[in-house]
Amino acid sequence: MRRLPGPSRPLVLCYHAITDGWTHALATRPDVLERQIRALLRRGFRPARAEDVVGGHGGLLHVTFDDAFRSVRGGLAIARQFGLPVTVFACTAYAENGRPLDVPELELDVSRHAGELETMTWDDLRALAAEGVEVGSHTVTHAHLPALSDVELERELGDSRLRLEDELGRPCRFFAYPYGEEDLRVQEAARVAGYDAAFALPGPSGPVKPFALRRVGVYRRELALPLPVNAVCANVTYGNGVLVVTLPISDQTSPARLTLERVTPTHGEHKGNAGHLATCVQT
Ligand SMILES: [Zn+2]
What we know:
Distance between the termini: 12 Å
Number of helices: 8
Order of helices and strands: EEEHEHEHEHHHEHEHEEEEEEE
Structural class: alpha/beta
CATH topology of the largest domain: TIM Barrel
Number of strands: 15
Radius of gyration: 20 Å
Mean pLDDT: 86
Largest sheet: 6 strands, parallel
CATH architecture of the largest domain: Alpha-Beta Barrel
CATH class of the largest domain: Alpha Beta
Shape: globular
Bound molecules: zinc ion
Helix content: 25-40%
């Protein structure tokens, strides 16, 4: 389980597709998204806009969706219920026709789940902007930025910003690094391209930097077990940064929901059982 920032830093979540129909690390189920947002707001995080988290004030929550998958529309509706501002990051070459995100890393998925990988067109993105959704740039082609020449980097960062501004008729102030890949040269290029700030994925801790705003990536993690287990008899141990869940092999396959919840910051190790409240304590 990833450590959540304390109240001294804003929490920015990074989602991709929001769907029931695709079991992939990039696909979060709508009911899971809703539960996660509700739990964080109950814990005291306050809804905030992208520009608010740049200031680095603690206790703020912002939600971002990378790649502008069409399925994200359902996620936006959920965030709206909670009054939670969101940012959608789009690749401009894909917005021309809304085609599936056919990057090499997703080649197999495009052949099997093309519909889940379809992206938003300019009309879709204009509709989002009109609803008050912040639309940022995610480059032109979803490139691996650190590998590019200076000229290519400028094109991916600068051309995408100008194209978004032309199409949406408003400033494009925010950027998200594809694959979370950035270094000091790429950060500087984002600043020179005219953005106010750029969102990354987890990296070195330290003060909040506008061109390396850290986000927590939320990914679907499911485990297919080859043998039946009794979840009610699960045992959970958390210690030294490692979470261990043991599930006894059993013909009695009692279903149970395992809830992991941070209680208080402490050191040491806690144990709990599924079927009751399992606790995961962060150090
Ligand atoms: Zn992406």
